[in-house]
């Protein structure tokens, strides 16, 4: 989650009288869709005129954000596993009897356009160059290619998903310039590798004395597995982890402490100013009451 702090939000939170208001006003949720892998086919063509310009395609890199909408509405993760329907022997139920299907992620986001007469004009008042037409073009390219994406939400980052469906709505009910997108992403399950190799056998004599060659295709399947770990490897990993943690704390610890001290100093100054102002108002009120009523 992103952290931001300024005098205006802090003063507003202090005046509300709740410490939770201070926390809620300085924390904002993080959302985003970034490239995990990029399909090489994207750089070959514009997919029947629905892809971006070649220069834009060539500038794509892993980790770049695909697009930035005006806002994120909701996210709905969905997962399912299938258990065998046939009877099994008592006590023999294992992972072979259950198949996990790819998870799905249903995301709803919106993009505010500039005018209802044309979707190709971006809403520059929101400091965005992304138009409704360009967003639909990007979604169509995502649906037609085999790239994978990481989807970041405030609760979790969903890694290795691809767009399999999207639909959108524009109407008077939500505003003629507001584009609402319903997108469904499906998990790409990478668990193994299949290698197909062909081989030709040696010549074998037949019944009539002629030789013939026979070809055969063999399939080698490589399953994903975890190899045994030795005690030395565990010790090396532990030492490396301790070293990495020490370096990280040494590098970032001073920055974190400095940021907290700065935030606390700002809070103290604003609190002092607010308290002084309130005390001055009380003092003036008491003096006025004494002069006009008591005396």
What keyword list fits this structure?
295 residues, alpha+beta, Elongation Factor Tu (Ef-tu), domain 3, six-stranded antiparallel beta sheet, two-stranded antiparallel ribbon, 34% helix, 30% strand, extended
Shape descriptor reads extended
Please provide the count of β strands: 14
The percentage helix is: 25-40%
In round numbers, the mean pLDDT is 74
Q: Strands across the major sheet, in which order? A: 3-8-9-10-7-4
Please give the CATH architecture of the largest domain: Beta Barrel
N-C termini distance: 58 Å
Q: Number of helical runs?
A: 5
Strand proportion: 25-35%
Overall tally of domains:
2
Q: Name the structural class.
A: alpha+beta
Could you give a short account of the major beta sheet? Answer: 6 strands, antiparallel
CATH topology of the largest domain: Elongation Factor Tu (Ef-tu), domain 3
The CATH C-level name of the largest domain is Mainly Beta
Question: Compute the gyration radius: what is it?
Answer: 31 Å
Poorly predicted runs are 45-57, 215-219, 221-226
User: How are helices and strands ordered from N to C?
Assistant: EHHEEHEEEEHEEEEEEEH
In words, what does this structure look like?
The two termini are 58 Å apart. With 295 residues, this protein is of the alpha+beta class. Strands 3-8-9-10-7-4 form a six-stranded antiparallel sheet. α1 runs antiparallel to α2 and α1 crosses α5. The chain folds into two domains: 174 residues, Beta Barrel (Elongation Factor Tu (Ef-tu), domain 3), CATH 2.40.30; 67 residues. The longest helix has 64 residues.
């Amino acid at each position: 989650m992103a952290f931001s702090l300024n005098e205006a939000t802090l003063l507003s939170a202090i005046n509300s009288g709740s410490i939770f208001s201070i926390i809620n006003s300085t924390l904002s949720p993080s959302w985003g869709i970034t490239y995990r892998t990029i399909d090489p086919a994207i750089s070959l063509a514009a997919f029947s005129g629905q892809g971006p310009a070649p220069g834009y395609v060539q500038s794509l890199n892993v980790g770049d954000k695909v697009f930035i909408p005006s806002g994120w509405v909701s996210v709905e993760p969905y997962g399912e596993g299938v258990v065998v329907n046939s009877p099994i022997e008592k006590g023999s139920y294992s992972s072979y009897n259950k198949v996990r299907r790819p998870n799905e992620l249903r995301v709803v986001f919106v993009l505010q356009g500039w005018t209802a007469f044309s979707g190709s004009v971006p809403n520059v008042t929101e400091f965005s160059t992304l138009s409704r037409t360009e967003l639909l073009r990007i979604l169509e390219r995502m649906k037609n290619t085999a790239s994978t994406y990481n989807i970041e939400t405030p609760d979790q980052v969903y890694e290795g998903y691809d767009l399999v469906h999207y639909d959108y709505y524009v109407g008077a009910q939500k505003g003629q310039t507001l584009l609402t997108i319903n997108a469904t992403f499906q998990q790409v399950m990478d668990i193994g590798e299949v290698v197909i190799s062909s081989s030709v056998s040696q010549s074998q004599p037949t019944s009539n004395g002629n030789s013939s060659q026979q070809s055969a295709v063999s399939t080698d399947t490589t399953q994903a597995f975890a190899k045994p770990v030795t005690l030395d490897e565990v010790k090396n990993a532990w030492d490396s982890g301790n070293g990495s943690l020490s370096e990280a704390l040494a590098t970032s610890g001073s920055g974190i402490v400095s940021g907290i001290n700065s935030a606390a100093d700002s809070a103290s100054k604003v609190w002092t100013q607010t308290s002084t102002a309130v005390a001055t108002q009380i003092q003036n009120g008491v003096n006025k009451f004494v002069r006009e009523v008591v005396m």
